[in-house]
Amino acid sequence: MPKLECQWCGTAYDACVDSVKLGSWRASACCSEHYQAKIIALDLHAGNITVDEARQMFDVLGIDPATATAVIGLDKCVAPLLKQTNDKLTPQAVSRKEKKRRR
Questions:
Q1: What is the three-class DSSP state of 14?
Q2: Using one digit for the tens of pLDDT, what is the confidence trace for 15-34?
Q3: Buried b vs exposed e over 17-29: b needs ≥16 C-beta within 10 Å?
Q4: What are 53-72's pLDDT values in tens digits?
Q5: Coil, strand or helix: which one is 73?
Q6: How far is 35 from 51, CA to CA, in rounded Å?
Q7: Interatomic CA distance for residues 103 and 101, integer angstroms
Q8: I need a labelling partner for 97 at 20 to 30 A (CA). Which of 33, 62, 82, 103 fits?
């Protein structure tokens, strides 16, 4: 099993050879949430989504954009999120488990 480094948080993790060969999300992230955060950051950087849309997506995902590392430069991709001040309060990030508990 190769030891890989998460492109979002920088944590070392194990991934099977097949997931790397097949291009699975496990080839670039330690968990599916960090892979989704990576995709949001890259979409923001490419201009496919706005800063507000990215902020909402991170809130729903429950990931703080400030946790992005420089492993592949994702910290620069989320920089507009961290620089922009918003007068409105952003909604609290609620995990999926918490949403289920509230129902």
A1: strand
A2: 888 988 898 999 999 999 99
A3: eebeeeeebbbbb
A4: 999 999 999 999 999 998 88
A5: coil
A6: 19
A7: 6
A8: 82
